[in-house]
Amino acid sequence: MEGDEMKKTDQTIEASDLLTEGMGQLDLDADSEPDFEELDVDKWDEGKGDEIICSAPSELSFSEEPALPPVLRRKRDDLYAILAAENVDKARLIQMARSEGGLVDDEIRKKAWPLILNISDEQTEELPTQEEIEAHPEYKQVVMDVNRSLKRFPPGIPYDQRVALQDQLTRLILRVIIKYPNLCYYQGYHDVAVTFLLVVGEEKAFYILEKLSTEHLRVCMEPTMDTTSRLLNTIYPLINRKNPQLHDYLERSFYFIFSLNSKLSPYLCKFALIIPHEFG
């Protein structure tokens, strides 16, 4: 039995890794998802489980990114040149974000994402109070999801920094759904939110997440799953169009469904952005 479980885990990881590789052709920013290592669950610090934590954030710091190959160094230089121009060529920026290597590094993403989404540095607004946040009907569910999402954070992150990051992620999500009562939180939304939080910090992440939630991800946040289900049904045909080998692998993989929740929530939501561009 134990051998079967290990085999299932290996096949699940293999399927999700292959899918992630194939998604690089389609993603708005092919490298924007943090490449987290598989963690030993026996060594995880579960903290206080589902206890609601929402303390003041502390400064977060992560290790430097590994050295880039020459082709990505050249691409990085080109991206910095585009961003340094008096009139940024957004079309070119988006084109490069969609190409192999994405936007290359987080310093570029910090500048490029707000530009692509037409978010101004001057945007400010009054924050909801802690009482308003905790009074929201989805608050406890958001906290439980965030506190369980240890694998979404960089491995080896100190406990106090991880708690601060979880607190910020909880606030970030609640700020959006408090401001827009018509948007419904869904499990997996925190996977999307944490990507922006890790790169640009809580404030800019809010405006990015707000923009995406009210536009590209809106169909994923409706009261029912009807529209989302229809959208998900386009995934296999879209994968087949872009990568037949990946499509055939997934069709043969019994364990593909197990990888959806843990690995693909951000990708599934990004299809909502990709599909209109692919099929007009």
Automatic annotation (TrEMBL):
<dbReference type="GO" id="GO:0005789">
    <property type="term" value="C:endoplasmic reticulum membrane"/>
</dbReference>
<keyword id="KW-0343">GTPase activation</keyword>
<dbReference type="InterPro" id="IPR000195">
    <property type="entry name" value="Rab-GAP-TBC_dom"/>
</dbReference>
<dbReference type="InterPro" id="IPR035969">
    <property type="entry name" value="Rab-GAP_TBC_sf"/>
</dbReference>
<dbReference type="Pfam" id="PF00566">
    <property type="entry name" value="RabGAP-TBC"/>
</dbReference>
<dbReference type="InterPro" id="IPR045913">
    <property type="entry name" value="TBC20/Gyp8-like"/>
</dbReference>
<dbReference type="GO" id="GO:0006888">
    <property type="term" value="P:endoplasmic reticulum to Golgi vesicle-mediated transport"/>
</dbReference>
<dbReference type="GO" id="GO:0005096">
    <property type="term" value="F:GTPase activator activity"/>
</dbReference>
<protein>
    <recommendedName>
        <fullName>Rab-GAP TBC domain-containing protein</fullName>
    </recommendedName>
</protein>
<feature type="domain" description="Rab-GAP TBC">
    <location>
        <begin position="103"/>
        <end position="280"/>
    </location>
</feature>
